[in-house]
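Example 556, ligand 6-O-phosphono-beta-D-fructofuranose.
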Amino acid sequence: MGAAPVDPRSTAAWASLTRLADGFTPDLRRWFADDPDRTDRLSYDAGDLHVDLSRNLLSAEVLDALVALGAEVGLPARRDAMFRGDQINVSENRAVLHTALRRAADSNLVVGGADVVEEVQTVLRRIYAFADDVRSGTWRGFTGEAIRTVVNIGIGGSDLGPVMAYEALKPYAQAGLECRFVSNIDPTDAAETLAGLDPATTLFIVSSKTFGTLETLTNARLCRAWLVDGVRAVADGAPADADIVARHFVAVSTALDKVAEFGIDPANAFGFWDWVGGRYSVDSAIGTSLAVAIGPERFEEFLAGFRTIDEHFQSAPLERNVPALMGLLNVWYTNFLGAQTHAVLPYAQSLHRFPAYLQQLTMESNGKRVRWDGTPVTTDTGEVFWGEPGTNGQHAFYQLIHQGTRLVPADFIAFATPTYPLADGATDVHELLLANFLAQTRALAFGKTADEVRAEGTAEAIVPARVFPGNRPTTSIMAPALTPSVLGQLIALYEHITFTQGVVWGIDSFDQWGVELGKQLAVQIAPALAGDADVLAAQDTSTQAFVRYYREHRQR
Ligand code: F6P
């Protein structure tokens, strides 16, 4: 299963951090008052991302020990092994090369005898030609009409990346061309996504790395039936299914044989490789819907954004390496200060799916209990990631972050330039959004003391309820604007944060065996719902009771 990872607890840095955590009493008010350079010292630039770590629960000694921890667990060597194409995904015996998807077109990287950059570029050229054809109306549906809606059918990494990026970059999408996304096997999803669409102008992209995922194949069949029925109703004669499907279905997969079995012409399929994990695949052919929406030039900018952060992660020394520092900070909170969760709070409506995207990236990667050599982990691993766009979150769950009993480190993300520069009379509305971004991080860091509350004339009995303890850690990230490049930079930032944490914990951040059992059981249980008495008898009593409840209420 691979060479044993370094047990982080065996390092000198872990011992230092343990000592520093013992009786640790952060005091951001005092730290800021005593050290006017704190923000300058703890602010970093990676590409277009300006990252301020100064409002974290971080002393100089803690920071030094975290950097030392990164070195002692071999983070730089493991990072280099990933970029080189070593088989670091040991439980699946694979290289981990999503970074090759965005390498410069004129570079090369030979892995297993093949230049993966050339392979990537070949597929990209095909995607771009396809995107141009759809955008220009050269690609026509069966009845001769141009495509107006692209529906991506996929789930997990074959959905979350494309939908998140499309929502984020919608202002760059071609007018008159809309993308929709179907993921859930709940038939509501397909029904509502297809509602109001015209089959003659709808193109489906079936996105599935394995082309064996129950949800995606079921939805693809539902969409195919809807398409064929709809086109037949308006087409002349009795066209064959295959001829209709050929003009309205393309596929993205590593399993091109299964694509053909499904009835999609391999000429209309875009491949990728087993060294791209699902949750790391938005910059592969899985991003085809995005490439169609924003066009090849913008998609290239998106890839260049990833590359900017890859280069930073590869070259910046650990003490100035933003993804490494943010990953190590998460280790500090998780393993030394007892944080169980981590909030991501974009002050940008366009990033409303970013927290959901990060949930798969971080939790499918680092929610592990054994290390890459098969031995049990020696520390807690992956924290629960969650979030919502500010300011909506402020009126929902921020209460707990400000005054609750739990430590919730939070990343705040904002942009200097708004997507829509609207004014409310003389007020620039984006400035109100940014004022909230600044106000929240300040309130979380510095709080409000009992004396300050009293000074406002508050009745003594209510003072405790109105105190804000402060010392609630936040990282603030700001970029000039949410461009395709900046989005690529943000995604790569979190990919490498996730990687850093996985290396410290000694886990394989690239497998996901924990999703398998439920998938197998669903297939086993399905016949019981459909009335198979033997399958029902083989279930536990709780499952049996629910199957009976279902059948009774569905009158089966
Ligand atoms: O449910 C887990 C998972 O395997 C994810 O890792 C993956 O992104 C998703 O399913 C979809 O898989 P596929 O692209 O093969 O359909």
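Summary: The CA atoms of residues 85 and 112 lie 9 Å apart.
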